[in-house]
TrEMBL record:
Organism: Aeromonas taiwanensis
SMART domains referenced in this protein's UniProt entry, alphabetically: RHOD (SM00450)
PROSITE patterns according to UniProt: RHODANESE_1, RHODANESE_3
Lineage: Bacteria, Pseudomonadati, Pseudomonadota, Gammaproteobacteria, Aeromonadales
Record-given protein name: Rhodanese
Record-annotated Rhodanese domain positions: 39-129
Length: 145
């Protein structure tokens, strides 16, 4: 028997709902970069790592907001009309998940960046260094999708 098929297959309706939900919860580096380059004002990028790691390299335009410091008091300054895209080092780190969870639990709209800073760099996008957010000026590789 097929290893792929032995656990069953979702119906097209179930599969569509599942994949639609994934797209509501996550975004990828190419889509985020496209929005940054277009000047999309509706999103805010949150680097959920420590300030030290942020200073070593971060997505241009991202603000440093470590997930460990997120609570009702520290998030009071955040706009409620934005979508917050959280990221961390990469798939081996759950800082972005922790940050997205905390922000969502506090009533903010959030998405998680697939692959974090690792996949951002892997796709050829620039990083900023230091304590200032910076600005993305040009794209990396174009998504092959």
């Amino acid at each position: 028997m097929s290893h792929v098929l032995r656990t069953g297959v979702a119906s097209p309706v179930e599969a569509s709902a599942f994949f639609e939900a994934q797209l509501k919860f996550r975004t990828d580096p190419a889509d985020l970069a496209a929005d940054l380059l277009a000047g999309e004002a509706g999103i805010v990028i949150i680097d959920t790592r420590s300030p030290e790691h942020y200073a070593e390299g971060h997505i241009p335009g991202a603000v440093s907001f470590p997930h460990r410091t997120m609570n009702p008091e520290t998030t009071a300054r955040l706009a409620r009309d934005k979508v917050y895209v959280c990221y961390c080092d990469g798939i081996g780190c759950n800082g972005s998940t922790q940050g997205a969870y905390k922000l969502a639990a506090l009533g903010f709209e959030v998405k998680e960046l697939i692959g974090g800073l690792h996949w951002w760099r892997q796709d050829g996008f620039a990083v900023a260094t230091g304590s200032e957010p910076g600005v993305l000026l040009e794209g990396g590789i174009t998504c092959a999708c």
